[in-house]
Amino acid sequence: MTEGHVTIIGAGIVGVSCALHLLKDGWRVSLIDEHPAGTQTSYGNAGAISPQSINPMSGSGIIKQIPKWLLDPLGPLAIRWSYLPKAMPWFMQFIRDGAATRVASQSEALAALHRNVIEGHEELAELANVKHLIKRQGWLSLYETDAAFKADAAARARMQSHGHEIHELNPDEISQLEPGLAPIFKHATWAPNSGHTVNPGALTEAYAKQASRMGCEFVNCKVLGFEIGPEGPTKIRTSAGEFKLDRLVIAAGAWSSQLSKQLGEPFPLESERGYHMMLPSPGFTTRRPVSFNERKFMTTTMEEGLRLAGTVEFAGLEAPPNWGRAIKLLEHAKTVFRDVDVSDAKRWMGQRPATPDSLPVISSSKVHEKVFYAFGHGHLGLTGSAVTGAHIASLVSRRNATIDLQPFRIDRYR
Ligand SMILES: Cc1cc2nc3c(=O)[nH]c(=O)nc-3n(C[C@H](O)[C@H](O)[C@H](O)COP(=O)(O)OP(=O)(O)OC[C@H]3O[C@@H](n4cnc5c(N)ncnc54)[C@H](O)[C@@H]3O)c2cc1C
After folding, report:
1. Centre of ligand 1 from the C-alpha of residue 391, in Å
2. 5-42+202-268+358-408 and 55-102+136-195+271-354, same CATH topology
3. For residue 406, how far is its CA from the centre of ligand 1 (angstroms)?
4. Among the four given CATH numbers 3.30.70.260, 3.90.940.20, 3.40.50.11690, 3.30.9.10, the one describing domain 55-102+136-195+271-354
5. Pocket test for ligand 1, best of 50, 222, 291, 352 (most atoms within 8 A of CB)
6. How close is the Cα of 213 to the center of ligand 1, in Å?
7. Ligand 1 atom closest to Cα of 310?
8. CB of 210 closer than 8 Å to CB of 38
9. How far is the CA of 389 from the centre of ligand 1 (A)?
10. Do 350 and 40 contact (CB within 8 A), yes or no?
11. Which of 3.40.50.150, 1.10.3720.10, 3.40.640.10, 3.50.50.60 is the CATH number of 5-42+202-268+358-408?
């Protein structure tokens, strides 16, 4: 591997988006992943590509709910007791980042990052010949209680203040938009300009195949570490042997901080584990992603059926899944829809790469001249991936970024 070459670790939606933008810039690119492209977290998400998602998690009233989480392993948000001591420093930072002034600047940064996320995916999907996988059909966000709707007033106002069209709907308007819903919702917000994909796994795979057509080399192995000389990392150690390094991009999702730490740049990253259930024949379709605020899950009609996806669980990267959490999604579906067939549901768990301030890391290394980071997109990694790829290509190619990337820097907690 010589001058003009970039190695990317991680072939999720973030890594393959970086690959496409770097290839477009003329770099030779190798993508290393221990799994086939797009088979980890990027496979099973809810498919929303939502420019209006600009509110950090810490600002959404979640902090008040922490004591409740500890008591219910099947609740919308759960922490395994045994994992709590390990997650505590992250939680402390999460709480600090929930201060009103910080929430305002985090929203500002997310609003800038997410401004053209649908266009970003449309561009890559066109290149990969899968434009049919991207839809612009809006997002419906539902509330069963006045209290939950009221609690989100500030978040709605922030979205509107950044120019996003957000309409408040009454129960009649809700059932006109999605007739399959049970009549249990008191309020909704409707974001007509939101987008989604009808197959996140196929989208990631298509981007990877396009990268391959453009000359990207795929290397199937696990990255174990680096050989670091005075000029930075010179070799990468993997389960398949050693490779020489020129430029390096870490896009390894929830596993990224294990690698950044080895490069001398630790970062507080947690896995917010989420689950999905795929219903092959639910008996109806919805037209757009629908989110259920109190229950912390979403549904999206996809190519292969209705996906019920969401919930948050802190248990680390290694703990086995708690499939009771996925089964709970079926119970929710039976409550929120009038009549849903949940037979033959397929279950899945994924690891959201979560930062305390809900901002991803899109950054040059502050230690090594030729190292770059693209990770930590949390709940919004599909949304932010295509534009992240463009920003990483600007950083590697030493072009001015089109937005201020300071809020996304790797050393913001040091
Ligand atoms: C239930 C659920 C619903 C979601 N819904 C949405 C949504 O609607 N909209 C949205 O925008 N986002 C959503 N997300 C979030 C989104 O899926 C993630 O943010 C995104 O997939 C992260 O992509 P990634 O490429 O960073 O990580 P991944 O897809 O996890 O890819 C990381 C890759 O790195 C590889 N890797 C890691 N370490 C190594 C190593 N040492 N050696 C080799 N390879 C390595 C892994 O094998 C993996 O393939 C959801 C997530 C979940 C769990």
Report:
1. 18
2. no
3. 23
4. 3.30.9.10
5. 352
6. 23
7. 1
8. no
9. 14
10. yes
11. 3.50.50.60
Mind listing the pLDDT tens digit for each residue in 361-403?
999 999 999 999 999 999 999 999 999 999 999 999 999 999 9
How far apart, in whole angstroms, are the C-alpha atoms of residue 282 and residue 391?
Answer: 39
- 42 pLDDT more than 70: yes
Amino acid identity of residue 265, one-letter, is E
Q: State yes or no: pLDDT of 2 exceeds 50.
A: no
- Tell me the per-residue pLDDT of 5-24, one tens digit each, with 9 for 90 and over: 999 999 999 999 999 999 99
For the chain, the structural domain boundaries read: 5-42+202-268+358-408, 55-102+136-195+271-354
CA 10 to centroid of ligand 1, rounded, Å: 9
pLDDT of residue 3: 52
Can you tell me which residue has the tokens 């800038």? 112
DSSP H or E run through 112? helix 100-114
Please, is 151 exposed, middle or buried when counting C-beta atoms within 10 Å of its C-beta (0-12, 13-18, 19+)?
A: middle
% of the chain at pLDDT higher than 70: 99
CA of 192 to the centre of ligand 1 (A): 26
Task: Using the predicted structure, report yes or no on whether residue 1 has a pLDDT greater than 50.
Answer: no
Q: What is residue 337's DSSP assignment?
A: B
Residues contacting ligand 1 via CB (< 6 Å): 9-15, 32-35, 40-42, 45-48, 222-223, 251-253, 255, 274, 276, 309-310, 350, 352-353, 375, 377-383
Tokens 């305002």 map to which residue? Answer: 104
Mean pLDDT (whole number) for 245-274: 98
